[in-house]
Design a protein that fits this description.
Chain lengths: 82, 351, 376
């Protein structure tokens, strides 16, 4: 359900739909920011069926990744050789 | 009997740019002669076609022939990195190459829809001629039919091809065996995504270009390099997943492939993520897989990487067993999953 | 792709898997509600990373799977009307109605088009003023705001030939129905991160209070799902029942206020039948009276409403039990024999996220896969 993908806002056009060009690893798509009007150029937004539904919190993402990394270092000594 | 150069008295035959295909262009009469004379002959110019006989007659060296046919119905007709014309030549050339053959002669059948733009037809024909020149094949016989408006999709093209298989070359699924290494000639999915990017309602930007390209050159080099190539298959509709499943079924073998080793360009990956597609199932038009003995995998890889069309070739897996046809993908996370055939086209997955 | 690739790292996945193994002491049955998560679990083979005592059941969170037969019949009826362009997301086209699917309607001459966004359907309407463009509004709370925004935009632009066949459904009532079902085995939930991105976590606080069941709001990448499971089993082992948010990079506690506002402006809750499960109170959405002109059923009149009432599900299909986590697809008598992706009896065999199709495609030959694993 609800396939949604993070992309980076490249350009925003004023207008009732706040249409933005968003890049997903290099391909671009027109996306409406009307549900996330606070998004700015350079922000990552999570896009579902042509609409951004949230602005990605990059600090929260980094906290998650840091936690995974810490867990990996904790777990490593227990891992047996393949 | 009116000759070709008889002066048109009252009603000049329309074939200028901006004009459209009429039913009469397929009617066997003067308008069809003019279409052949003005469009097809100059573009495909070669002595065999110039005879304008019912078929082409030619000699081939004694030995084995490869013979194949394919029809092309792509929409849009022009897409980033190619068009239906070059596709119709490369597709058939590639099918011959996958048999280990040197492609020689092609036939072409056009099914045109009444009202189709003659200017577009000219562009498509020119593109076919250019593709034939690049691949050193000759379009030696052809046919044109016109169907009523609404009964076609602009233009359909069928090509058939004949090539010669050099002595000693034995390429086919029957030779695939446990231990063979599996090579893929380049990154996957660009053609499918390039075509999708033009579709109404799904379109996206970012300049993904189709991988449409001829493969006979690199295949010839591979066969001459001394590598005992067991099997070749070009990856078209259904992508890598379908090709491997077909070979596994024909050869009754199990294969294991590594997701990590399968090349996919970043924008293609992005497009697949947005639309919920799996790049393993997306169409290609200039990619193939090769099955080679393990000891020769590195040599084969080096040969592939010498050619621009396959410069990012990669060894993606191994034939791991025989008996049950099965494709196992070792995922990025080191887990296994089965890669099965789809029941139909892959549909954009939204929800 | 940034914020995708990092969340697929194999080393971190192993570490999370190991942490789950260390945490789990008793057998647990947990449900991932969302079909997107089911898809990721299958695609990345995540189930192989869980300890044997932990059972994941695939929930009803695939809107394609739970759309009732009557609505599919209505869609097919509308798509077959002359002058209509019927727009749908791709994976709806193969879902069987009472007698046929949208692909068959297309083959019979209906103008059926796959769109990526409701806005693409609106654009089609503007480009074809002589036609009626109907869009199949399928999806959960994540998708409903997009359709709502398209309707608001259609009104703003005065587009008169655009309407929706509304099939939206809501997640919390479905979780409630699963918890209330006799024989429920589910002890904890991974809630759908994108639904909560829109709606926030409040409704889930209510479920936790009422049913004392832990819920972890979870993202869709492999590391998200593994971390979601870890947080869930930690709660279960500790005897806690709380709402936790694993997917903090997208989900705020209060959700997305703009999306909620437009959803409330355009839609209102109604009772809705779920395919295979039956009617669940206040679990669907319909257009509010003020937007009734955009309702395809209103616009095309009585016939369409009647078509919807005649929908018959295949009697042999047990998808309802599957969607509630009460039956594993291979245990269904029809599975793989009378029900395959080529000839599906029910929607879960069709949708790429459907539990039955997922089992069929990836797990049918589990035995040989096991051998491969052991042979390593």
């Amino acid at each position: 359900m609800c396939l949604a993908v993070p992309g980076r806002v490249l350009h925003i056009e004023e207008g009732p739909l706040l249409t933005a060009t968003v890049s997903f690893g290099g391909v671009t798509k027109d996306v409406s920011l009307v549900l996330v009007p606070e998004a700015r150029v350079g922000d990552y937004v999570i896009v579902h069926v042509g609409f951004a539904i949230s602005k990605l919190d990059e600090e929260a993402a980094q906290r998650s990744l840091d936690a995974f990394a810490a867990l990996g270092e904790l777990g490593e000594p227990e891992e047996s050789a393949p | 009997m009116a000759s070709e150069d008889a002066p048109a008295v009252s009603c000049p035959l329309p074939l200028a740019s901006g004009q459209h295909v009429l039913l009469a262009h397929g009617g066997g009469g003067r308008l069809m002669q003019k279409l052949i004379g003005d469009v097809f002959l100059p573009a495909f110019a070669n002595p065999l076609l110039a005879k304008l006989h019912d078929g082409a007659v030619f000699s081939v060296e004694a030995g084995r022939l490869a013979f194949t046919t394919d029809s092309y119905v792509v929409q849009p007709l022009f897409f980033p990195g190619g068009d239906i014309g070059s596709l119709a030549v490369y597709g058939t050339v590639n099918d011959l190459a996958m048999c280990g053959a040197k492609p020689l002669y092609l036939s072409v059948g056009f099914i045109l829809e009444e009202g189709f733009s003659l200017e577009l037809l000219q562009r498509i024909v020119d593109s076919m001629a250019e593709a034939a020149r690049k691949t050193q094949v000759q379009l030696v016989t052809g046919d044109t039919k016109v169907v009523d408006r609404g009964k076609g999709d602009g233009i359909f093209i069928n090509t058939a091809g004949i090539g010669v298989v050099p002595p000693g070359v034995m390429v086919g699924p029957h030779r695939v065996q446990a231990g063979d290494r599996i090579l893929v000639s380049g990154d996957l999915g660009a053609h499918g995504l390039a075509v999708l990017s033009m579709r109404e309602g799904l379109g996206f930007g970012g300049g993904i270009e189709s991988d449409s390209a001829p493969l006979h050159g690199v295949v010839a080099d591979l066969l001459h390099s001394g590598v005992d190539v067991h099997c070749l298959r070009d990856l078209t509709r259904g992508g890598l997943a379908s090709a491997l499943n077909e070979i596994a079924t024909a050869a009754k073998v199990e294969m294991t492939i590594e997701e990590r080793s399968i090349p996919v360009q970043e924008p293609v990956r992005g497009g697949c993520e947005i639309l919920g597609l799996d790049p393993l199932y997306v169409a290609n038009e200039g990619r193939f897989v090769a099955f080679v003995p393990p000891a020769q995998a590195e040599t084969a890889l080096a040969v592939l990487r010498r050619h621009a069309v396959s410069h990012n070739a990669s060894v993606i897996g191994t034939v791991t067993g025989s008996d049950e046809p099965l494709i196992i993908l070792r995922t990025l996370l080191g887990t296994n999953r089965i890669v099965d055939l789809l029941s139909g086209d892959q549909l954009p997955r939204i929800c | 792709m940034k914020y995708v690739t990092e969340f697929r790292d194999s080393k971190a996945a192993r570490a999370l898997s190991e942490a789950i193994r260390r945490t789990v002491r008793r057998p647990w049955t947990v449900m991932e509600v969302c079909g997107g998560q089911t898809h990721a679990i299958v695609r990345f083979g995540l189930d192989a990373l869980f300890p044997p005592g932990l059972t994941l059941v695939h929930g009803p969170g695939c809107p394609v799977c739970v759309t009732p037969v009557g609505l599919i019949d209505q869609a097919i009826h509308l798509a077959s009307l002359p002058g209509v362009i019927f727009c749908s997301f791709g994976d709806m086209l193969r879902v069987p109605g009472s007698v046929r699917d949208l692909f068959a309607a297309k083959a019979a001459g209906g103008d059926v088009r796959v769109v990526y966004s409701p806005l693409d359907a609106l654009t089609l309407a503007q480009a074809h003023l002589d036609r009626q463009v109907i869009c199949f509004a399928v999806g959960f709370e994540t998708t409903a705001p997009a359709f709502a925004a398209a309707v608001v935009q259609a009104r703003r632009l005065g587009v008169k030939n655009f309407s929706l066949l509304v099939a939206h459904v809501l997640v919390p009532p479905a979780i409630g129905a699963i918890l209330n079902a006799p024989g429920n085995r589910v002890q904890g939930f991974l809630a759908a991160g994108h639904v909560c991105t829109v709606m926030g976590c409040k409704e889930y606080d209510e479920l936790v209070r009422r049913h004392r069941v832990p819920i972890v709001v979870t993202g869709f990448e492999p590391l998200d799902i593994l971390e979601g499971v870890l947080l869930l089993v930690r709660q279960l082992e500790a005897g806690r029942a709380e709402v936790e948010n694993q997917y903090a990079r997208s989900v705020r506690r209060q959700g997305n206020p703009e999306a909620q506002a437009v959803l409330r402006e355009v839609f209102e809750p109604v009772p809705r039948a779920w395919r295979g499960i039956g009617e669940i109170p206040q679990s669907g959405l319909r257009l509010r009276h003020a937007y009734a002109e955009f309702d395809a059923i209103e616009r095309f009149g009585g016939d369409v409403a009647l078509v919807g009432e005649g929908g018959v599900e295949d009697a042999e299909c047990r998808s309802g039990l599957v969607l509630q986590g009460l039956l594993k697809p291979p245990d269904c008598p029809a599975f793989g024999i009378r029900c395959t992706p080529e000839r599906p009896l029910g929607a879960p065999m069709v949708s790429s996220e459907g539990a039955c199709a997922a089992y069929f495609r990836y797990r049918r030959r589990t035995d040989s896969l096991q051998e491969v694993r052991h042979g390593e």
